[in-house]
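[Discussion] Sanity-checking designs against the backbone

I'm trying to build intuition for which residues belong where. Below is a structure token string of 125 positions. I'd appreciate it if someone posts a full sequence so I can compare it with mine line by line.
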């Protein structure tokens, strides 16, 4: 959008400079005065153009800086959120692993007891 504004302003300034130049050329003055007026008008137009260029450049620079800061803030928020979610997943996995270890220990104990009972039956039979 800033580019369109700059282009529009440039077109207006160019049109104004051309119009002023044509007006001066058709004015009933001597060549020296006409050249002087053209030179002054050219310098005015150049100053206006330089001023607008500087303002547009500063505006774009400011917008770019704000966009960069906004991006960095959102990136930091996203990374922080992902870190918390990763921690939650790790805790859930650790809890599940502990439950599986307890279940495995229980099954091993039951298997040992069953084997002992089978051995005892064989020994008494």
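Best answer:
Here's mine. Compare freely.
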């Amino acid at each position: 959008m800033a580019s369109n504004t700059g282009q529009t302003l440039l077109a207006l300034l160019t049109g104004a400079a051309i119009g002023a130049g044509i007006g001066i050329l058709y004015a009933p003055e001597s060549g020296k005065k006409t050249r002087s007026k053209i030179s002054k008008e050219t310098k005015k137009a150049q100053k206006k153009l330089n001023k607008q260029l500087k303002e547009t450049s500063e505006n774009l620079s400011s917008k770019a800086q704000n966009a960069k800061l906004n991006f960095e803030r959102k990136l930091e928020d996203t990374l922080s959120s992902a870190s918390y979610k990763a921690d939650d997943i790790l805790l859930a996995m650790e809890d599940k692993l502990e439950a599986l270890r307890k279940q495995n220990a229980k099954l091993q104990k039951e298997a040992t007891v069953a084997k002992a009972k089978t051995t005892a039956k064989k020994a008494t039979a």
